[in-house]
UniProtKB/TrEMBL annotation:
The keyword Lipid biosynthesis does not apply. Keywords: Apoptosis, Phagocytosis, SH3-binding. This is Engulfment and cell motility 2. Signal peptide: none annotated. It comes from the Eukaryota. It comes from Cyprinus carpio carpio. GO terms for molecular function: SH3 domain binding. Involved in cytoskeletal rearrangements required for phagocytosis of apoptotic cells and cell motility. Acts in association with DOCK1 and CRK. Was initially proposed to be required in complex with DOCK1 to activate Rac Rho small GTPases. May enhance the guanine nucleotide exchange factor (GEF) activity of DOCK1.
């Protein structure tokens, strides 16, 4: 009797027959085991040699030792026979038979043994010809789309085994696959396989990379991001990254392309691409770390090893555990006994650990410098790297809205994220250095952790708002946004906001005061010189507003008056209700006359006209700029329009400044007299004066 450990009890299945339980002695030769299996199914199969061929396909396994008690083994056609039969059916003329053969081929292509036999029979070339000739059959062969989907699936599965090189793919095949990607309306399954095939071409062959880049553009690929199918979006993003972020030279060219002004539609597509790319991080962001998973804990141990590689481990278990706890504390973990617990909160979950490991491996010098620099500080001023990295990852996910759907009409994309194939990780590396720098500038302690994170968030947000074209430019902008600069910007913005709120409250009062002053001046009236008087003696006329602001009174005068002119002497009137508008400069009727065109520029700037019903105009030329502003503002106030003269703006600024200064005076407990103080008596002598002459 063989040892019990060599005997394995398994169930053998064959289509059309009941499963049989047999015992396999792993020490027996493979041929003997095959014969035993065949003997069990002789009632089902007439030809034992055929069945041997079937059994060998299952039993000739490199890992026959992995078969355990209770395993179920299914008998199937041998790879060679299956490949031959499927190839014959694919080349048949029956559409239904060909469709079923391609459907079965799509399933079997994942098996390495079958793939080898099928490729050796030139099966892959047959599939390529079917794809290349697809357009001529598409219009009249029923079920062509379904057949093509299975063909592309099988082709991709067969190529993924790496049996033949992608460089052997023909140009016509590439053009046909690219045509399916570029078509506006194509079956979802065909589009998925076509995108995946193009991505594999780009990643596995430099020559095909050039060809695919010629056949497709980023604009065409970005259109596939507008669909709701997440698999299509993922494949499109993967192909875009493979095409445009493959080499440093390609990345530099892509930077130039992104930095140029883009149309709103293109900007929205780039924004969608950015959002969906970041959304690929959501799975890691929402994955909790298992504190009992040794594989995950080894990653944390790797962080410790890289930081403290020079320290030799003690021989004793207890001493080693104490050293590890000390090291994890210096790494800044909240739970140094078991730092895996720090990564159980989502977000950021395992994404934070991924970022930390990337920094430690790709930017090892920076990582070691940050860790050791904080270890050498006083305890109260050390920056906890582990806690900071976890919180920073959570903050970056929130700032970039990882996991959220794109907003319709939003064009807020950041060009720098299109300049590096690991843009997210590099962005984290830049920001963790900023955090460490800000911590030192603030001379922060553990109690200031949240305050530091608030400042860092503001620094990152301000820098992103400037839309830096590259990660290096982001680094430069963050370097200029020091803690002192952030404080200065806060102070400036706070003062601006305070000024704005103050002005919003008191500006209406000041404008009303200016309006009343203008109307008061119109009630006093002004004297104007008549134009076109060539005689030696000048003629004047006077105009003033009634005290109830309802009528304009005007009339001619023989000479310039010394004060106000009584209403009785002003015989002509214009009801304010009849006034339609006030015109200035060249728009005035009296400035359009031929004789007036010869007037100098000064007269033109002082001219204005009041239009009133029925289609009449009262023309003015003010004596100076002040009178011009007073009257144009006054008439605008009568019409209920905005006062827009230079004098109004100047008066508004002066009065606003004075009002704000008065309101900011510390007048608490100070009695302000209602009457002005008396004027003091003149001094008896003026000997104290200084003679400047």
């Amino acid at each position: 009797m063989p040892p019990a450990s060599d005997i394995v009890k398994v169930a053998i299945e064959w289509p059309g027959a009941n499963a049989q339980l047999i015992e396999i002695d792993q020490k027996k030769p493979l041929a003997s085991i095959v014969r035993e299996v065949c003997d069990g199914f002789l009632t089902v199969m007439r030809s034992s040699s055929s069945l041997i061929d079937l059994c060998v396909s299952v039993c000739v396994l490199q890992n026959r030792g992995d078969i355990k008690n209770g395993s179920i083994l299914r008998l199937a056609i041998s790879p060679m026979r299956a490949a031959r039969q499927l190839l014959e059916r694919i080349q048949s003329h029956g559409i239904d038979a060909r469709l079923e053969a391609l459907k079965e081929l799509a399933k079997l292509s994942a098996d390495p043994s079958f793939a080898t036999e099928f490729i050796n029979m030139e099966g892959l070339a047959t599939l390529a010809r079917l794809v290349e000739s697809g357009t001529q059959y598409e219009s009249y062969i029923p079920l062509f789309g379904e057949m093509l989907a299975f063909t592309l699936t099988a082709f991709l599965e067969l190529m993924d085994h790496g049996i033949i090189s992608w460089d052997l793919i023909s140009v016509s095949f590439i053009k046909q696959i690219a045509a399916y990607v570029n078509q506006p309306m194509v079956d979802v399954s065909i589009l998925q396989r076509s995108l995946a095939i193009l991505e594999s071409m780009v990643l596995n062959s430099h020559s095909l990379y050039q060809r695919v880049a010629q056949e497709t553009t980023v604009t065409q690929l970005i259109t596939h991001l507008q669909v709701s199918n997440q698999e299509i979006q993922t494949y499109a993003i993967a192909l875009i990254n493979a095409l445009f972020l493959k080499t440093p030279e390609d990345r530099r060219q892509h930077i130039i392309r992104v930095n140029r002004p883009v149309k709103a539609e293109m900007a929205h597509q780039l924004y969608v691409l950015q959002v969906l790319t970041f959304n690929l991080l959501e799975e890691r962001m929402m994955t909790k770390m298992d504190p009992n998973d040794q594989t995950q804990r080894d990653i944390i141990f790797e962080l410790r090893r890289i930081a403290f590689d020079g320290d030799s481990d003690p021989s004793g278990t207890e001493k080693r555990k104490a050293i590890y706890i000390k090291d994890y504390k210096m790494l800044g973990f909240t739970n140094p006994v078991n730092p895996a617990i720090d990564f159980t909160q989502t977000p950021p979950g395992m994404l934070a650990l991924d970022n930390m490991l990337y920094l430690a491996k790709v930017h090892q010098d920076t990582y070691i410098r940050i860790v050791l620099e904080n270890c050498s500080r006083e305890d109260k001023h050390e920056c906890p790297f582990g806690r900071s990295a976890i919180e920073l990852t959570r903050m970056l996910c929130d700032i970039l809205q990882v996991g959220e759907l794109p907003n319709e009409g939003c064009n807020d994309f950041h060009p720098m994220f299109f300049t590096h194939e690991r843009a997210w990780e590099e962005f984290f590396c830049v920001c963790i250095q900023l955090l460490n720098k800000t911590w030192k500038e603030m001379r922060a302690t553990a109690e200031d952790f949240n305050k530091v994170m608030t400042v860092v968030r503001e620094q990152i947000t301000r820098a992103l708002a400037m839309k830096p074209p590259s990660l290096e430019q982001l680094r430069v902008k963050l370097r200029s946004l020091s803690y002192s600069e952030v404080l200065r910007l806060r102070q400036s913005e706070r003062m601006s906001q305070d000024d704005f709120h103050w002005s919003q409250r008191i500006q209406p009062e000041i404008l009303e005061l200016i309006k009343q002053q203008r109307l008061s001046r119109l009630c006093e009236g002004s004297c104007f010189r008549k134009l076109g008087n060539r005689r030696r003696q000048e003629k004047f006329w006077f105009c003033r507003l009634s005290l109830n602001h309802k009528v304009l009174h005007y009339g001619d005068l023989d000479e310039s008056p010394q004060g106000e002119v009584p209403f009785e002497l002003l015989t002509d009137t214009i009801p304010v209700s009849d006034i339609k508008a006030v015109l200035t400069g060249k728009d005035c009727p009296h400035m359009k006359e031929k004789s007036a065109l010869k007037q100098n520029k000064e007269v033109l700037e002082l001219a204005f006209s009041i239009l009133y019903d029925p289609d009449e105009a009262l023309n003015f030329v003010a004596t100076n700029k002040y009178e011009y502003c007073i009257w144009t503002d006054g008439v605008s106030a009568l019409l209920g329009k905005e006062l827009g003269s230079d004098l109004t703006r100047s008066d508004l600024d002066t009065l606003m400044s004075m009002e704000m200064k008065l309101r900011l005076l510390d007048l608490e407990n100070i009695a302000i007299p209602e009457a002005p103080p008396p004027v003091p008596k003149e001094p008896s002598t003026y000997n104290f004066t200084y003679n400047y002459g």
